[in-house]
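Customer escalation, tier 2.

The customer says the design service returned an amino acid string that "doesn't look like it belongs to this structure." They asked us to rerun it and document both sides in this ticket. The original structure tokens are below, unchanged.
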């Protein structure tokens, strides 16, 4: 919400800082009246399941949950035994930001973090890490691979890159999960079909995000490998994620998917990020840690620009420099931060950030020259 009618909202901390979009709220209200079967046995849930099958051009098992953590953790649990490993990027959300939920829901599986520049795994890096695991009963065997699309560095895997990782995984009988908390943002950036970004490239199970891009609290586990779907309805219930008023969960997706609202939201968020990114990169002393490919911008800010933005009420997070490109270092008077745009970010808010950053940069420039 804006601070006042004239003040653009300056919260770039994440895309979940915004509320839900109007079509999602309308769909919720429309689904609210009257009685319907509970626990997902309602006609709206059936309709949304059919919509996912159409969007992904195949039979797809659909399990709706309320958080991305639940979607990821249940997906990892479906792919791994309690004594199995699931490989992922060393800074993946599942390993860094889910309080051990994947290990908890899988009753003991472990995550194997593998480094890679820009939040991305490479086939060679993955193969080397898997080949280095001792083949012995003392060693947990690798059973799954999870990749994030978009990644935690705001980068995206191309279809060919996903296929190459899938090949390494398949050769070792690992199932492939995609954390698509920002699936829509990656999809419109790549300009491919949902099938092309997933199962046609070897993805077996997908966490399809809705919350960050307009839903209230709705994520879908989409399962393309029928063998992985069997356990999920029990796992979801057992984890407390089978929502009793299930139609209000599926209604969010009804509003989200209808008329390609989800794609329009993602395009808007990505466009706002492009403008923000280009504007910041043009300011003296500001660099980008990684290219802006979706709705996340990672500028390296000089201290005076950082201070001015914070003083003017712009919200954003400091970010990890764990997967910076070789040769890029963060100076002592700089900080690497993440700014995220969303379906609700306005051009005015982006411009306000840019003009504050420009002014701060210009204010310091004459003094540096004089010195
Ligand atoms: C890459 C990624 N995966 C998953 C999630 C989902 O997390 P949550 O449980 O907060 O919905 C997030 C949210 O920050 C994320 O950035």
């Amino acid at each position: 919400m804006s601070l006042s009618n004239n003040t653009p909202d300056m919260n770039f901390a994440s895309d979940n800082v915004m509320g839900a979009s109007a079509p999602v709220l309308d769909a919720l209200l429309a689904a609210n009246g009257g009685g319907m079967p509970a626990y997902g046995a309602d006609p709206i849930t059936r309709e949304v399941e059919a919509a996912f099958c159409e969007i992904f051009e195949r039979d797809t098992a659909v399990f709706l949950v309320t958080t991305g953590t639940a979607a990821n953790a249940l997906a990892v649990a479906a792919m791994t035994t309690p004594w199995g490993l699931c490989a992922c990027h060393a800074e993946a959300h599942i390993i860094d930001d889910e309080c051990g939920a994947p290990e908890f829901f899988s009753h003991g599986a472990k995550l194997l973090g593998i480094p890679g520049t820009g939040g991305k795994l490479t086939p060679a890096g993955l193969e080397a890490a898997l080949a280095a695991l001792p083949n012995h009963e003392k060693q947990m065997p690798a059973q799954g691979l999870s990749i994030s699309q978009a990644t935690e560095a705001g980068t995206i895997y191309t279809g060919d890159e996903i296929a190459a990782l899938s090949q390494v995984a398949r050769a070792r009988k690992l199932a492939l999960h995609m954390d698509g908390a920002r699936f829509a943002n990656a999809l419109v950036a790549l300009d491919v079909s949902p099938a092309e970004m997933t199962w046609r490239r070897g993805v077996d199970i997908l966490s399809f995000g809705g919350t960050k891009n307009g839903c209230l609290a709705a994520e879908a586990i989409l399962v393309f490998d029928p063998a992985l779907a069997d356990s999920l309805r029990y796992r979801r219930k057992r984890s407390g994620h089978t929502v009793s008023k299930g139609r209000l969960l599926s209604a969010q997706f009804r509003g989200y998917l209808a008329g390609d609202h989800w794609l329009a939201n993602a395009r808007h968020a990505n466009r706002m990020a492009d403008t923000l990114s280009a504007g910041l990169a043009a300011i003296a002393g500001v660099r980008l840690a990684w290219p802006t490919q979706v709705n996340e911008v990672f500028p390296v800010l000089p201290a005076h620009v950082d201070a001015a933005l914070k003083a003017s009420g712009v919200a954003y997070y400091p970010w990890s420099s764990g997967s910076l490109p070789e040769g890029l270092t963060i100076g002592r008077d700089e900080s690497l931060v993440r700014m995220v745009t969303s379906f609700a970010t306005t051009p005015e808010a982006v411009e306000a950030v840019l003009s504050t950053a420009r002014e701060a940069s210009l204010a310091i420039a004459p003094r540096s020259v004089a010195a």
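Tier 2 assessment: The sequence is consistent with the input. The first strand starts at residue 61 and ends at 65. DSSP finds 14 helices and twelve strands in the chain. Sent an explanation to the customer and offered a walkthrough call.
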